[in-house]
Design goal:
Distance between the termini: 46 Å
Bound molecules: acetoacetyl-coenzyme A
Largest sheet: 10 strands, mixed
Oligomer: single chain
Structural class: alpha+beta
Strand content: 15-25%
Number of helices: 12
């Protein structure tokens, strides 16, 4: 019998602050329903300057990893497109904060929002050769387009942490998978820019083209039809994007299975609606949202996952939900974490947005108001202090 490999535990962290999308719509003189329905976002995480991908990843990981896990983690793969250094990986800071140094490999991977999927697939191969080991996979980002840009309502931020192992508690990853890449300028962030550049409408079209491509490729390889899936999950830069993807798949298919899959999609976008874009983490936040919120999904069912990263790279892959998958959540109540967040005004959000630090020699941050377990305290001689 083949060894099962996959997601053993999953954790999530975001900011303790959010902006209500109705307030943002009013400030930008847009109809609130454009954001709530047209874009599909209700709230957006507002990241404090004392938080970055490292601190958010540390909080997410701390929620799931035990002392026993720490002994077995031999690889930390950190996916982000909000890197804090051009050379040094975020993973080595993270491993330090979590206390999993020194007998470990620590690297960062990048391909826009696809990065965490690359990390997950790398981890799968690594576990196949090292079945006793565990890999800590991170997808963490702070999505920044800029104040008063079209992308503004699709910002957000947070971190997903996944422990990948043999005999996983949550999701067994299957083979084969379907990948597709093309050199495309739909969304990018040139060196030195702290905000993404994007051709918004074009990027949404490319997302759908790539989805059709990998869906068809996966069908050719596996013969899986709509009825073979318990749920379909999508990269959610904003939740309407995933709905467009689901509608395209349903339209292309001859079988009408829309009620069942649409219901699961609604569970799967619940958390993303309240947090916004996590870039690398978005698909996995949607997975978390599904397994926390759905009362109809069952162990043994196949989940299909569509990962998309601008630039562009896509992959469609599948996994089987394991018995007792809820145990892999480590007892964390994410709805209450989200409910406890504090709302900020549009002007406070703008202030937080502008006060993030990039390429600065010396600064001490005021971290008194940030109650997080992990804090960016400042920069000294261009060295970040946590
Ligand atoms: N009530 C209900 N719906 C309304 C409405 C109202 N009053 N007013 C407008 N809408 C609808 C529109 O009909 C439209 O729906 P459809 O897309 O289904 O046609 C939707 O609201 C958005 O309206 P617009 O198209 O006019 O919005 P916009 O021009 O301001 O741009 C956007 C929207 C392109 C998504 C922009 O926010 C953007 O550029 N975002 C960033 C790019 C992005 O997320 N791209 C996704 C693919 S790339 C990727 O996935 C990688 C990544 O993470 C970035």
């Amino acid at each position: 019998e083949l060894m099962k490999i996959g997601i053993d535990k999953i954790g999530f962290a975001t900011s303790d602050l959010y902006l209500d999308m109705v307030d943002l719509a009013n400030a930008r003189q847009e109809d609130p329903n454009k954001y709530l329905i047209g874009i599909g976002q209700a709230k957006m995480a507002v990241i404090r300057p004392t938080q970055d991908v490292v601190t958010m990843a540390a909080t997410a990981a701390k929620r799931i990893i035990s002392e026993e896990d720490k002994k077995n983690i031999s690889y930390v793969i950190f996916a982000t497109e909000s890197g804090i250094d051009n050379s040094k990986s975020a993973a080595v800071y993270l491993a330090d904060l979590l206390g999993i140094l020194p007998n470990v490999r620590t690297i960062e991977v990048k391909q826009a929002c696809y990065g965490a999927t690359a990390a997950l697939q790398l981890a799968k191969g690594y576990i196949a050769l090292n079945p006793e080991s565990k890999v800590l996979v991170i997808g963490a980002d702070n999505a920044r387009y800029g104040i008063k840009t079209p992308g503004e309502p699709t910002q957000g931020g947070g971190a997903i942490a996944m422990l990948v192992s043999s005999n996983p508690k949550i999701l067994e990853l299957e083979n084969p998978t379907a990948a597709y890449a093309e050199n495309i300028m739909d969304f990018w962030r040139p060196l030195g820019h702290s905000k993404a550049l994007v051709d918004g409408k074009y990027s949404s079209g490319i997302y759908l083209d790539f989805l059709r491509n990998v869906w068809d490729e996966q069908f050719k390889k596996t013969g899986f039809k709509l009825q073979d899936y318990g749920a379909l999950l999508f990269h959610l830069p904003y939740t309407k994007m995933g709905l467009k993807g689901l509608r395209q798949i349903l339209q292309d298919a001859s079988v009408d299975d829309s009620t069942r899959l649409t219901r699961e999609f609604e569970y799967a976008r619940q958390f993303n609606r309240e947090v916004g874009n996590l870039y690398t983490g978005s698909l996995y936040l949607s997975f978390l949202s599904l397994i926390v919120n759905s009362d109809s999904i069952r162990s043994g069912q196949r989940i299909g996952l569509f990962s998309y990263g601008s630039g562009a790279q896509a992959e469609f892959f599948t996994g089987i939900l394991q018995p007792n998958y809820q145990e892999g959540l480590a007892g964390v109540d994410y709805q209450s974490i989200l409910n406890k967040r504090q709302a900020v005004s549009v002007s406070e959000y703008e202030k937080f947005f502008e006060s993030h630090i990039f390429d600065i020699e010396n600064i001490e941050l005021d971290y008194q108001e940030d109650n997080s377990d992990f804090l960016l305290m400042g920069v000294q001689d261009y060295k970040r202090k946590y």
